[in-house]
Amino acid sequence: MYYVFRLVGLLAPRLPAGLGLRLAAALGALWYHLARGQRAILLRNLRHVLGPGASEEKIQRTARAVFRNTFRNYYDLFRLPHLPAEEVEKLIVVQGEEHLREALAAGKGAILATAHFGNVEIMTRTSAIRQYQITGVAEHVQPEKLYRYLLAQRSRGGVHLVPIDGSLKAIFRALRANQLVGLAADRDVSGTGITLPFFGAPANLPAGYVSLALRTGAPVLPIFIVRQPEGRFVIQIEPPLALANSGDRERDVRSGVAQMVAVLERYIGQYPEQWTFYQPIWDQGLPDSLISRLPDS
Known about the structure:
It is a single chain. The protein is α/β, with parallel strands linked by helices and 297 residues long. It has a domain at 85-290. Helix content is 49%, strand content 16%. The protein contains eleven helices and nine strands. A seven-stranded mixed beta sheet has the order 1-9-8-2-5-3-4. It has a two-stranded antiparallel ribbon with strand order 6-7. β8 (220-227) and β9 form a beta hairpin. α2 (17-34) crosses α4 and α3 (36-50) crosses α4 (56-79). The longest helix has 24 residues, at 56-79.
């Protein structure tokens, strides 16, 4: 897998964008048929998202679109750092940036809560262009040389990444410096999340971003990057969550996560083909032997 990524990293910046995106989509469609474990998990997740009334044909069509978007995301991972700033600006529309500016004006930094949705790579590149300092958390994938390579590629986009299994002191330093911290709200990697209804069924979801906000005073701003045709993007920054600080920390955390869940459901429900999530989030009952380890995009 490491050498596949190195080859893609070598070729992607040299391809015209239209051709590169078409090739990535074709490879994603192929991988849909080859990746039995990921396909099984994705289909079960999408049955929750699309609801009991969705036909099997619609579920499978959406799943194929997810695979295509995943591979487009990988293409962008290697392509975007090589684009001049003015070219990146042509690809994006930012909506709600006033919420971000207002949050930073308070001087306590801001937590950007997002999901495995759209293409986070464009946000990291945009933050660098607009001179926002952002720190994120990365899953420590294996093998180690693949992790190091992907970390280097993402860092070139302008984000400082720290491993989820390492020290998170950099997160607190970033907020104290009035910078941004990006955290995922749809995957409980640490196993310390809480169970809440998500698309009508109990799901274990991360709560660390809300706990961090209550501890530091930094606001939580939901942010989603919606892929548009022809490799363009809309970066949507939502108003901050209305976090309570009643003194009952457990209740306050649960309330904050529930607010974020409502935003997640809105975006994922509207764009299910852009939720590139290949982990069982509900009780799937799938054996580990079925789950292959393509790193999350």
